[in-house]
Structures are given as structure tokens and as C-alpha cells.
Specification:
This protein has 346 residues and is of the alpha+beta class. Helix content is 21%, strand content 26%. The longest helix is centred in the middle third of the chain and has 13 residues, at 167-179.
Length: 346
């Protein structure tokens, strides 16, 4: 199963000195268990998803042979795990953090992620992430790779995510993402006067000149499509500004932000994708919002609608959530009527 389009894969390969080696023998009673599950039953202080990452990274050995994810325990194997000096070894731990759950049953949960919250542990954010909170509120997710998170939102994008609580649910949700049957709608505030509707096709890959950016100007990009529809045309200090809805067909990193910038309509307040932004006017808008006690970090982008087929019951689950107050207050400040965006999530 391929998760790379929806999950940030850990980058492994840098040579670093080892500072800790864990060694133990698997009990004979674990014979026949999946190897990651068997190891998790011995190393109870680590989640199964963490152990799976170690196996994928080639850090787990049995009698000097690298253990493979497909292996099953025979019992009495001598297992050795070599841990590099990296804070991510402790990243997949449960943390008692607030989590806004808008739907939950025995198989899935739909979560509202506020802007400013990182989804996955990574460099600079090894704790305090949505994943850490999920492991606390739903301990069963520790038995699912990547704690059941099958798609993501950027740190400063607010909105809905779905979490799988078991492997069967995760497999079904990933299939929906890959078949493009999952409904995901966003609203975005952008600079310029946008076309009434537009389908943006363009492969996206990591920008070789700036690792923080994604780009359409690469040779090894992955196919990406975004459907954009104008909801309202307005102005700020004489400069056109538009509210649009965006519907994803694919789920690439920074997809909406990259596609809208390529179209010539970068997101309001985007700290990275800033091509064709009227910088003086953008600064004036930010200052006037601050004067009115309206402040939000990052880009103006909200994932307000998530629709999917329930992996077990096959019923349609469709959840919507309004933008956070600072975004609504910004639209009100710009005299963009609420009726223009509320209908998007109907």
C-alpha cells in the first residue's frame, strides 16, 4: 500500500553515530505473529507504528539479518534494534493534548485541526503534534501505521481530517484517496480577480532550489488537479481580491497553494508562495486587520468539507465545519458576504 502521496515520509539515510542498541529474544509464544506486532508486545513503551518505522528504515535486525515488514516471528529470535541519536525515536508517543473530535465510531474519527498545529512529528516539531494527540485520545491507533492518519493539512491550514482506527479502515480510506472518490472542499482568499471557474492540472514536486517549497517546474513531479470556482470578487484599497472554493482530485503537498500561485492568484498571507502578491497592499491589509484585533498565522485556507464512504457500513459520511473566527472576521472586514462561502459546505 502506498501512502507517500498523503503522508510525509521520513527521510532516512544520513550516516550518524549510534547511541543506543536494544537487544532481546522473542518469546516462543509469539511464534506466528507479525514481526512488528511481536516486537511491540515486548517493547511496550514504544508504539507499533514507531516499530514499523524502524523496520522500514532498516534499523531492526534478527541474527544480523535486516528484518522485513512482511516477516513473521518464529520465536526465540535474537532481535537487535540500533537507534540513531534522533529525537524522532520518541516522537510517536501519546500526549494529553486538546483534540476537537467532530465524529467518532469504532473504525474512524473525523478531527478538526486548528491552524498553527502540525499534523506529523518532524524536524523542529517532535512533540505537540496532532499525531501525539490522536495516540492519547485513541490508543487503538497505536496499532495502525502512522497512527491512522491517511492525509494531511499544512500547519497553518485549518479544517477536517479523517483518522483510521484499524488497518481495515485505513486500507479502505487510502483506496478512496487513490481513486479520488473522497470529497474535500476548501475556501481560499486570494489576490487578483480569479476566473469564474478553472481546473488546474500540473504535476508537483519538491523544488530543487528550495526544499521548503513545492513547484510545478520540476521533471519528476506527480500529477495534480485542483478545481477552482470563484465565490466572490471584491477589492481592498483598489486591488482585486477574490474568495474561491477549491476541490481536490489529488492530494499533493501544498497542492492548492502551488496551483493558485501558478494561476497568478497567491493566497492572502501565504508566507512561502508569494509570486504576484501586491506586497505593499498585502502589508496594509495585515496592519489594518491587526488594528481591528484580527490576527491569524500563515495562509488563508480552510478545509471545511470532508465526505467519504464509511469503510465498514458503506454509508456516506459528510462533515462540514466553519472557518475559524479570525478568517470569518477577515471576510467580514472585507465586506465579503457570509452567504458566498456558507453555501460551499452545504
Amino acid at each position: 500500500m502506498e501512502y507517500s502521496d498523503y503522508i510525509d515520509d521520513a527521510e532516512v539515510g544520513e550516516e550518524v553515530p549510534l547511541i543506543r542498541v536494544i537487544e532481546f529474544d522473542l518469546p516462543i509464544e509469539l511464534r506466528g505473529e507479525r514481526i512488528d506486532k511481536a516486537i511491540a508486545k515486548v517493547l511496550t513503551t514504544y508504539s507499533r507504528s514507531r516499530i514499523q518505522q524502524w523496520i522500514e528504515a532498516g534499523l531492526v535486525y534478527e541474527n544480523e539479518r535486516k528484518i522485513q515488514a512482511k516477516d513473521h516471528a518464529m520465536g526465540l529470535e535474537h532481535v537487535k534494534i540500533s537507534l540513531p541519536p534522533d529525537p524522532q525515536n520518541n516522537a510517536y508517543h501519546a500526549e494529553d493534548l486538546p483534540l476537537q473530535v467532530v465524529y467518532s465510531d469504532s473504525d474512524i474519527a473525523m478531527i478538526y485541526k486548528p491552524y498553527g498545529l502540525v499534523v506529523h512529528p518532524a524536524a523542529g516539531n517532535w512533540s505537540g503534534t496532532l499525531l501525539n494527540a490522536v495516540l492519547h485520545h485513541f490508543p487503538e491507533c497505536s496499532d495502525v501505521p502512522r497512527a491512522g492518519i491517511v492525509h494531511r493539512l499544512d500547519k497553518d491550514t485549518s479544517g477536517l481530517l479523517v483518522i483510521a482506527k484499524n488497518l481495515k479502515a485505513q486500507h479502505a480510506l487510502v483506496q478512496q484517496l487513490q481513486s479520488r472518490s473522497m470529497e474535500r472542499k476548501y475556501i481560499a482568499l486570494v489576490w487578483g480577480k480569479t476566473p469564474l471557474s478553472k481546473v488546474i492540472h500540473g504535476a508537483i514536486g519538491r523544488d530543487p532550489k528550495d526544499r521548503l517549497r513545492m513547484s510545478m517546474q520540476v521533471s519528476n513531479g506527480k500529477e495534480a488537479s485542483t478545481y477552482v470556482k470563484t465565490l466572490y470578487h471584491g477589492t481592498f484599497e483598489g486591488k482585486p481580491i477574490s474568495l474561491v472554493s477549491c476541490e481536490l482530485e489529488t492530494g499533493r503537498t501544498h497542492q492548492i497553494r502551488v496551483h493558485l500561485e501558478f494561476l497568478g492568484h497567491a493566497l492572502v498571507n501565504d508566507p512561502i508562495y508569494r509570486n504576484k502578491i501586491p506586497h505593499q497592499i498585502a502589508l496594509a491589509l495585515k496592519n489594518q486587520l491587526l488594528e481591528n484585533n484580527i490576527q491569524f498565522p500563515g495562509q488563508f485556507l480552510h478545509a471545511g468539507l470532508l465526505g467519504l464512504e464509511h469503510p465498514m457500513t458503506k454509508e456516506q459520511v459528510r462533515i462540514k465545519v466553519d472557518p475559524p473566527p479570525p478568517l470569518i472576521e477577515t471576510l467580514d472586514f472585507l465586506k465579503i458576504p457570509r452567504s458566498s462561502w456558507e453555501k460551499v459546505f452545504d
